[in-house]
Structures are given as C-alpha cells and as structure tokens.
Amino acid sequence: MNMILKIAAKEMKEVLRDGRFRVLSALCLVLLVVAAFSGKRYYDFVNAQHKEAAEKERLNWTSQEAKNPHSAAHYGTYAFKPKYPMSLLDQGVDKYTGVSIYLEAHVRNEAQFIAAQDQTGLSRFGDLTPDFVLLFLVPLLIILVGFNAITRERESGTLRLLQSMGVSPERLAVGKWLGIMMPVILLTTISFFLAALFLGNLSDFGELSWSALLILFGVYVLYYAIFSNIVLLVSAWVNKSSIAFVILLAVWMVACLGMPKVVTNLADQLYPYPTQQEFMEAVNEDKKKGLDGHDPWNDAARKLEQEVLAEYGVDSVQQLPFNFDGYLMQKGEEHEAEIFFKHYEHLKEIYEKQSRLYRNAAALSPFLPARFLSMAMCRTDYHSHWHFSNEAEKYRLEMMNALNMDFADNSRYGDWSYKSDPELWNKIQPFDYTPPTYASVLSANTGNFVVLVVWLAVSFGFVVIRCTTLKP
Amino acid sequence: MALKNQYKYEWLGLLRDRWIIVLSLILLVVCFYAAHNGKEKVTERQAPLEKAFEEERAADDMYVALIDSVDLGLKPGLPVWQNPQRLNVIGQRAARVCAFEAQPLALVSTGQSDLFTHMVKPRLYGEALTLGFSELSNPVQLLFGSFDLAFVSIYLLPLLVLAFSYNVLSSEKESGTMRLTLVQPVAPTRWLLNKLVIRYIILSVVFIVAFVFSLSISGLSVIAEIGSVVKLIIAVLAYMLFWFGLSFWVNLRGKSSGSNAVVLVSLWVLLVLLVPAIISQLANSLYPVPPRVGMLTELRKAEAEAQKKADEILSNYYRDHPELARTDTSEQSLYPFWLSYFASQEEIRKAVEPILVDYESKLQAQQRTVDKLRFFSPAVLLQNSFNELAGTSSRHYTAYRQQVVDFAGTWREFFVPRMFRNEVMKKEMLSGLPQFAYNDDEVEQQFLADITGLLLLAIGVFSLSLLVYRNQAVERILAV
C-alpha cells in the first residue's frame, strides 16, 4: 500500500509539475467557464422568449370571444417546452427537437421550431458547451498527460530499476493509475464545484437537481477512469511513447467521433424512421377506416348512433339528453387519439431499437453510455422530449374533452350556432409540465450505467494483467 | 542537380516506405465506407419521392378515366365532393408533389438534409398557413451526424496529413543524417519544403484516387459530374495544403518528433473541433436566430384578428371544415361556398404573410452574418463547399422552402380564377396542371469565396513560417 501511494504521489507530482497538464487543465477550465457564461446568455434569452410566448398564448386563448367550443378547439393553443438549469451543462439533443407543440382538434402535432433548422451548417460542428469540453476534451487531456506514463520509464530504463527494487507490477499499475486519475479528479471536482456555484445561483435550480449534479459528477469520473485505464494499458503495451500516443489518439477518434457516426448510419439503415409523409399517410389511412366525428353518414358513426340510442332507450338523436353532435365529436377525437397513439407507439419501437443498437455499440466506445447518461441527467435527451410530447398530448385530450362535452351538454342536436361562454376558456387550466422524476430517469438508464461499470472493470483488469507480465 | 536528386531519392524512399501504403489503404477503406453511407442516405431520400411520383401519375390516370365516365353519365351516384369535374376536388385531391430530389453529388455530404423533408404537397385548402418542412427523425442521429465523405475530408484527412509529415525534419535529426543533408547546397527551408511538396503530391494523388474510386463504385458517373467533382477535389487539396503549411511551421521549430506530434494534434483539435464550436457558440449568443416563438405569438394574434373579419365572409364553422359544405350547390354557381371560403382565407393570408416575410428576412440577415464567421476556420470553409456542391446546404433548403411556398400560390392561382369563372375540370386540363420543379439558380454560390479563403489561409501559414524562421533556420535545426 505504501509503495502504491509513493508511486502515485511521484506520478502525480510529475503530472502536476508538467506544463502540459497545467496549461491544458487551465485551458479546459477557461473553456468551461466561457461555455457556461455564453450558454447562460442564450438560456436566459430562450427562457424569456418562452415565458413571454406562453403568457401571450394563454391570453390569446382566454380572450377568445364567445364561440362554438369546437371552433376554439380548432384555434387551439401551444405547449412550450421548458428549459432546465441543468441544460446549461449538457445541451443534449435540445437543438434538434422542437420547442413547442400546437394543440388542436383532431391532430397530434409534432413539436415545431427545431433550432438547428434555422442555423447554418456551422452548427453541425457542435457548440462550445460544457458537455463538449467534458466529453471530448478532457479525455484528450488524459491522453496527453498519461500516454508516456509507462513508456517513459521503459525508455529511460527506470522500469528495470523499479522492478529490481521489488515493486510488484500490480502496485505499479495501481500507483500509476492513481497518479493519472487524481489530477483528473481534481480538475473534475473543481469544474463541478464551479458548476454548483454557478447553477445554485439560478432561481429555478431545484433541490432535487443537487443529487442529479452529484450523479453527473459520478458519471464523468467513471468515464475518465475508463480513459485512464485505456491510456495506461496502451502505455504498458507498446515500447515507444510516440507509438502509444498515435494509438491512443486513434482510440479517442474511434470512440468519440467515429463510433457515434458509424452506429448512427447503421441504425438509420437497419431501423429507419418513416418519413413525415409516410407517417401521416398511414395515420390518415387508419382514420379513413374508423370513426369520423364530423361525418354522421360514416359507417362507424352510424353504428355508434344506434348503440347510444339503444342505451338511452330513445329512437332519435333529438331525444337524447345531450347534443349528439358534441358526443360524436368527442368519440371521434378519442378514436383519432388512439390512432395517433398506435402510430407513435410504432415510432417509439423504432426509436427503442435504435437505442438498443447504441447501447450495444457501447461495447466499442465508452463515449456512448457517458453521452447518453450525461444528457439524461440534464433532461436534454430524446427520452425527456418524448415525455414532454406525451404529456402535451394528454393535456390536449383533456382540453378537447372539456370543449366537446361543453358542446354536448349545453346545446341541442343540430344547433351548430351554439356559442359557449368565454368563462369556459378560463376554466381550462394552462398546461403545466412536470418532467419525469430522477428515479425514473435513473431506472431507464441502468443499462448505460452497467455498461460503464463493465468497461471500468474490464479495462482495469486488462491493465493489471498487462502489468503483471510487464518486461522492461 | 541537387534538387533533382533530392526529388528522385525522396520519391524512391517513400515508395519503399510501408507507412505510405498503410495510410493509403486506410484512406481508401474509409472513403469507400463513407461513400457507401452517402449512397444509402440518398436512396433513403429518393425512394419515397419516386413512390409519390408514381402515385401521382396513377391518380392522374384515374381522374382522366373518372372524368370520362362522368361525362358519359356512367357515374350517376357520385357524391359532389368526389366529382373530379369540380375544380376544388382536383385542387385538393390531386395536389402535386413538390419534391427536392437529391442532386448528383448529394452522397458526399449529408449536410442539412437530415433535418428537412424533401416532399411537400400543398393543397388547395385546409393547409396550415405555415407549411411544415420538418422530417421525422431521431434527434440523437442528428446530434452524432453521419459518417460521410465530408466527415472523412474535414476530420480524418488532416490527421493523415499530419501523420505523413510531422517528423520530416526531426527524424533526420534523430537518426543523425541531418548534418549530411545540410552539407548539400540547398537551403534547409527549401529542402524541407521540397520534402513536403513531394508528400503533398503523393497524398493528393492517393486522395483523388480513393475519392473518385469510391464515388464511381457508389454509382456516381464522375465523367458526367466532372465539374463539381473537380471543384470538390480542388477544395480538399486547398484544405490539405493548409495542413501541410502547419506541418511546415511545426517542423521548422526544430523540436523532437514527439513534440511535433503533440503540437500538431493540439492544432488539429483547436482548428477542427474547438474553433468551429466556439464560432458556433458565439454566433448563438451574439447573433441569436430571431426567435420563432416570438414570431408565433404575433402570427396567432394576426390570425385571430383576421379570422374575425373572415367570419363575416363565412360562417365560422365551415371555415374549419370546408369539406362539409358539399351540399351547397345551386344553379348559378358551382362553387358558391368555395368562393367565399377563398375570400376568407385570403383575408387571413394577407394578415399573416407580412409577419412570415419579415421573419424570413431577419433570419436570412442573421445567417449571412454567421456565414462570414466561417473564414475563421478552414474546416468550416471546407464543410461549406461540400454542402454547397452536394446541394445540402441550409441555403438550398431555404430556396426549396421558398419555392414550395411560391408554388402553393401558383396552385391556388390556377384554380381559384377558374372557379370564379364557373369552369369545370376537363380531362385535358390534368396534363396542364402547374408542376413544381426545384431549381437552385437563386442559391448563392460561395465556392469561389471558400476556396479563396482556404488558399489565403494556406499561403498565410506558409509565408508566416518562412518569415519567422528564415534567418535562424540552421541554428534552430541543428540545436539538439
């Protein structure tokens, strides 16, 4: 143990004294701070926009004059996706998902206004956000600091010296590992400490987010530990520092840049999404077959009419205690919602197949699970977007139900000129979105955690095995 | 004489070097894979378009036959909302496919093509005022991007350049042959330059072969598209020249091979990863895209105002469900309902259009500003050229959107006046319906500016290094 600590202390001292580490970690910290502050500017800008839009849109809705509730349903309203403080750390897929969903009668709409669509190709290089520094640059820093950890000893002949002193290979491995890892943990801790200071000052940073921040810290430490193992493994494997460097750089390229793209192409070829047109055509095809809430001559509608008449024991829709038109419309809405649900479920299946592919590919790239976990903890992953979209759809159905039933309950059959009291618009509460709890986020991401831990264990095992057979 | 010998022996030496064969093979495999991916993407883009065109043709044939039978009185029970003699029926149901077909070189760069749909069918009525152009996609895929030839050229090729040239001078020094070299009557900078030029030529040839080969294997007729292919190659060669320039500078510093490698890789990270990300982030916070949600509230307000006026023209309910007005027919006009419907729609359009036009012009102004930032990074310049030649740049999609919106107007203009004149649809008219054809004449060409930028950056790096190290080259190089 003593020997391990000595080696670690010596290695750490060297790393900390080395200009490379000091310059690069200072650079990383500066970039993180710049990224956080410029991100904050954009975050405030977007949040102010959304707040204003949500208020105005609510006003648009409540200030409608007396009109037929179904007209109001067609006028509809908008749900705006909130941005959370943690998104300042990891933007995730935020720029590629829409920010507002139009909630109207008959249709489940996709979220509109994808930021990337209004940006030029430049934005596809990625933005300088903290996740960019944490996911891409810090691993490079680890490589630059540690690529010659063992080759250096070999090249200068000190490896033989160490072995002659009776240092066991495992101790050497653990010591070296600690020596590389400690400075990196120091850097990560400082970064997250700054992040905590920065985020804690935001008014909307909830208490729960502290644990999320802590978990995020854990994810990154795991990720860096894996990279340290790889660096050490390669450094122990090859004879020359320059070769170790080239190999490690190639590993980084493949893990962080190559694999994500390769898997993306593969996922796209194996499990393609339908195009927007194909998707809507399939929905319309199903709609045609089913109940049309507007068409009393439609087969399904006639069947419903017979059933309702029988249930109430009357022989014409005029005798029903409610307006059958409104009732029919509500049933139509429910039916359409089911169709949309079915097709969205299908889409979700494709998405889950793609996700599985990404998870399997994590066997070749520790970047992937770290990437997914990081954006999940910041609630900027695709899963969070689905959740928002589903909640908005639930709200839309409640809203349509309230409008249609007002029509059914307060008017007579055939009375299309019925106008409901503007009080009704106020009675429908505004959309208030609650994101999924962190517990459910974590349980949805156990797979990614497992992969990271396996990576850590396996790579460390390799380091130890390699070091026991280390020859000077 | 010495020069000629240097070229000759350098050439022979390189040919026997296994390193160059390995690098060439890597480049070939990677290009081939990237072109294959590009081809898959293009197929995925084209297949639904071809299907839609086929369906359009089949539907047209069906309508011709149907009009014939109606003319002959063979379809007495046909409801009026399905009667193809009614212009509004054709205007709605026989909407044309507005397709943005992949351009021949689309396979080299995915660009912005994964963000947008390539097919819209603007109909006569019931269309949302703002046509949607989004494509359904998994945003994770958009985030990671595609492994295409643009990626290979922008990210990987510079690394090959560096791997091929980082130790030209230091290896001679490290193996002790440097002093021998300096005995020859060649200035050391000139000598280094010659070595790099030979490497540049070799790598260029390897790249051109790999590039052209993988394009032809992927089914592109390089001969037919020779103009664009040559432009692309020129852009890549200029980009490579820039990286050789950096290598020239780093070699002249006279440090060890290991140090050179670290410096060059750091430069690569800086120029390919960091600078574009910094520019992009700067653009976001300094010149934010005019907010769509802000525009939305304005749009909704105008729409609501206009609807009040429109309601005077048309009963409220029918505005939302024009298809229900099918029973409204009379002797005088075939389209009494429709005429007031279009009048009300016109009212809304008039209120909303200025907002959309205003937004679009703000967006274009913002993009022009951001576009200029590309001159700070050779990687962004090259990407811009790739997207432009592949027809997948944001400018192409802006043009497409604009043309579809214009076409929706043309489509309305075809039907509405005829409906006012109380005409009916005849089968000959089907072949004369307006057709959409995308053209990119209006797309601003930035290739010349990009290539000039790339060359200036490359020349800048070379001349700066010469300027800095001109006088002290020998001392520096000999210092161990």
- The termini of chain A sit apart by 23 Å
What profile does the largest beta sheet of chain A have? 3 strands, antiparallel
Strand content of chain A: under 5%
Number of helices of chain A: 17
Spatial strand sequence of the major β-sheet of chain B:
1-2
- Secondary structural class of chain B: mainly alpha
- How much helical structure, as a percent, in the residues of chain B? over 70%
Largest interface: A-B, 92 and 83 residues
Q: In terms of per-residue confidence, which ranges of chain B show pLDDT below 50 for 5 or more consecutive residues?
A: 326-331
Tell me the Rg of chain B in angstroms.
31 Å
Report the mean per-residue pLDDT of chain A as an integer.
86
Q: Beta fraction of the residues of chain B?
A: under 5%
Going across the biggest sheet of chain A, name each strand in turn. 1-2-3
How much helicity do the residues of chain A have? 55-70%
**Average of per-residue pLDDT values of chain B:** 84
Unreliable stretches covering 5 or more consecutive residues of chain A: none
Distance between the termini of chain B: 30 Å
Topology of this structure?
The complex is a heterodimer of chains A (472) and B (480).
Chain A: H1 2-17, H2 19-62, H3 69-75, E1 77-80, E2 100-104, E3 107-108, H4 130-146, H5 151-155, H6 158-164, H7 169-200, H8 208-237, H9 241-270, H10 276-289, H11 299-312, H12 324-361, H13 367-377, H14 382-410, H15 423-427, H16 438-444, H17 446-468
Antiparallel strand pairs in A: 1-2, 2-3
Chain B: H1 2-16, H2 18-71, H3 87-93, E1 98-99, E2 119-120, H4 139-144, H5 149-165, H6 168-175, H7 178-183, H8 188-217, H9 226-252, H10 257-286, H11 292-313, H12 316-320, H13 336-372, H14 378-390, H15 394-420, H16 427-431, H17 447-469, H18 473-478
Antiparallel strand pairs in B: 1-2
Helix pairs in contact in B: 1-8, 2-5, 2-8, 5-8, 5-9, 5-10, 5-14, 8-9, 9-10, 9-14, 9-17, 11-13, 14-17
